[in-house]
Design a protein that fits this description.
Largest sheet: 7 strands, mixed
Number of strands: 7
Order of helices and strands: HEEEEEEHEH
Radius of gyration: 15 Å
């Protein structure tokens, strides 16, 4: 086995499938950001404070500005806690996810935060 093979196995072992929604219906994300793919889907990327891990969501289906909660394609609820931020674990998971799916993407956290501020100032 080559060094490259060993590194690829380590990377594969470092990313795991999330538990079923029935076992983990809600995730609290800190140091979060929002990524948009060229396919038009947006994903939560952040640190899952409950499991102490970087997390990438399935595509976001709905988002409630008042409660700062989103529901993803899997049916899981993501509650965004605190301000957005950078988390190296979450960013690494996102990089692996996007690379594996050959996704082109951009960060849209700033636009998302502006929408939150606009909603708060309008009383929505």
């Amino acid at each position: 086995m080559t060094t490259k093979d060993v590194l690829e196995e380590v990377v594969k072992a470092s990313i795991w499938k999330a538990p079923p929604v029935s076992e983990q219906p809600c995730i609290y994300l800190i140091r979060w950001s929002i990524m948009e793919t060229e396919k038009g889907t947006c994903h939560f990327v952040g640190y899952n404070s409950g499991n102490s891990e970087g997390r990438v969501s399935t595509p976001i289906e709905t988002f409630d500005l008042a409660t700062v909660r989103g529901v993803t394609q899997s049916g899981r609820i993501y509650k965004l806690v605190g301000p957005p931020g950078y988390d190296p674990d979450a960013e690494w998971v996102w990089a692996m996810y996007a690379s594996a799916l050959k996704l082109k993407w951009r960060e849209v956290t700033g636009e998302f935060v502006q929408a939150l501020k606009d909603a708060a100032s309008s009383g929505a």
